[in-house]
Amino acid sequence: MSADVPGIDPLDGLRAPQDPDCDVFLTGTVFLDIIFTGLDSAPVRGTESWARGMGSSPGGVANMATALARLGLHTSLAAAFGDDHYGEYCWDALEQGEGIDLSMSHTVPGWHSPVTVSMAYEGERTMVSHGHEAPGPAVPDGGPGFPCCPPRARAAVASLAPGRSEPWVATAARNGARIFADVGWDETGRWDLDALADLRHCQAFLPNAEEAMRYTRTDCPRAAAHALAERVPLAVVTLGPEGAYAVDSASGESAEVPAIEVEALDPTGAGDVFVAGFVTGTLADWPLADRLAFAGLTAALSVQEFGGSLSAPGWEEIAAWWQRVGTFADQDPAALRRYAFLEELLPAAARPWPLRRAVPTIGFRHPA
Q1: Peptide bond preceding 151 in cis form (omega within 30 of 0)
Q2: Rounded distance, CA 199 to CA 181, Å?
Q3: Share of the chain above pLDDT 70, in %
Q4: Helices (DSSP H) in 98-220: which residue ranges?
């Protein structure tokens, strides 16, 4: 079930009758994720390892779609689903469980769902994946498995790749969507910003520090952010355990927020959750530093649970965390003030921390 608290709308007061029904649109590949946790070390060749925990959930682009939906944004996902039991399970978990609009998605007969097995240990993860590209012709304004033009939306999230342009990104931008983009590792080794053709359509670009420095030929992530801000209106560079740094080229403003120290169980999907938090704050028109703080907070809460979409926090988790952290006698008052903007958003009462989140597992016919 969706983890957001009924009645909490981060865009409350900003919605107008002429606005699109969709807050955020995204497209990509949905995987079935099978996550093993509680491993003391990496699996050793020729031996059998037993994990103390396991969960199954939709993964891939479903991680970010779930994170957005749990934060109260009306989310539309265009994706291909296999016609196997895995695909049926993922569709149901996203549409019925999370309230994600799948009207742009479709089931592909005879195509099996991509699968990822993730093993979490020592705060890191090792993954093994298998899958084939969904069959079907590319549509001029879409892509493989993308049946038609993207819907009108306040925002869209894209994943950029060198040498590849996705026609839907330009279409969405022309229709008024604010494009937020991340990027993966450049396997070509060229690290050429000009090769990211859709960057010109983006309002915000959110690479990690290593990616940002390689693309800008700088040796400092903050310098990289300023260099990227010459290409996009808003550059956000994630700094791992140091937090995040952002530059708004329109206003000339920059902001840096440190990360929250947590004991990480599984980092799967943390980057997706960070982007979802930042998109939420941006659409809600929060100050830049508050957006960074909120994105970092949601990512920090996610790594304390296993899985990608499983770990995405909703407002109930955020409220419980805020209520709990205020009870620590040795808490730094300045650190608390950094998140004081949450007071106006969160319900007065919250369930006690820690919360037990639902753990979907294939095989149960009724809720356990």
Answers
A1: no
A2: 8
A3: 87
A4: 98, 167-174, 209-216
